[in-house]
What we know:
Number of helices: 10
Bound molecules: adenosine-5'-diphosphate, ligand LJ64HWYM
CATH architecture of the largest domain: 2-Layer Sandwich
Radius of gyration: 19 Å
CATH class of the largest domain: Alpha Beta
Oligomer: single chain
Distance between the termini: 11 Å
Number of domains: 2
Strand content: 25-35%
Amino acid sequence: xxxxxxxxxxxxxxxxxxxxxxxxxxxxxxxxxxxxxxxxxxxxxxxxxxxxxxxxxxxxxxxxxxxxxxxxxxxxxxxxxxxxxxxxxxxxxxxxxxxxxxxxxxxxxxxxxxxxxxxxxxxxxxxxxxxxxxxxxxxxxxxxxxxxxxxxxxxxxxxxxxxxxxxxxxxxxxxxxxxxxxxxxxxxxxxxxxxxxxxxxxxxxxxxxxxxxxxxxxxxxxxxxxxxxxxxxxxxxxxxxxxxxxxxxxxxxxxxxxxxxxxxxxxxxxxxxxxxxxxxxxxxxxxxxxxxxx
Length: 294
Ligand SMILES: Nc1ncnc2c1ncn2[C@@H]1O[C@H](COP(=O)(O)OP(=O)(O)O)[C@@H](O)[C@H]1O
Ligand SMILES: N[C@@H](CCOP(=O)(O)O)C(=O)O
């Protein structure tokens, strides 16, 4: 049996729109069993998700190797769908990794990343899902340039997942078609300075810049009213950097570990409709293991 695991991801991290992302410790697991006549996809999603070759994971695998031999596969995942935690990127990478493993393809992670980004359209989820930890990336339309993002030690990602879904494609429709030159300069300066602050463990500067995004949050905040509520709660505790995870609706506050419980208690008391999780970075990224049955 071949087992593929891919972590969840939180993208943008405030001002790093389509560029910054961090892998988190929720996982999609894909088990690949025997070869079969037709693709057979078992899964435990509550959703109406195809069990045949029209399944997204199989379609992604076939985009890389069109004549891939069908197999019985099983997908299980604790990454919620369409919530801004990179479920589509995890499924997409699982499909590509399956094609690579079954067809014994000789492609490295760079090629895998280019292919995954071409399918996803932006690298900020697929890059950290592939490599683990934090990544800053730029896609020029054919190739991804990327570098690790330094993460402070002793932080948690206090994650509020609303009860409703928001498809990334819909949240992208809310974005402006253009940004004035002055705004773009400021937006990129904020993002650059956030990365520089993280590099020297200056968490005081970093957490302020996390909330100064000029690229996407203002345009999307009407879709996720909880963003301003959670920011207010977090600011009262004076510990905080809160941002819209990916395209939303999940909202994440990066917190020093010591302050985590205090924030979770305050968020729980607000009784917002959704789930609160305490997440941590994943440092491994995508993994493929082969288990031999005796
Ligand atoms: N394991 C999976 N198998 C099949 N399709 C999936 C899987 N995970 C995600 N998807 C597809 O991706 C969609 C969500 O993608 P998207 O809107 O980008 O949100 P997210 O922020 O979760 O990536 C789902 O509605 C579903 O169509
Ligand atoms: N940069 C993208 C990130 C989308 O992430 P997802 O987890 O919501 O798919 C965007 O903001 O649109």
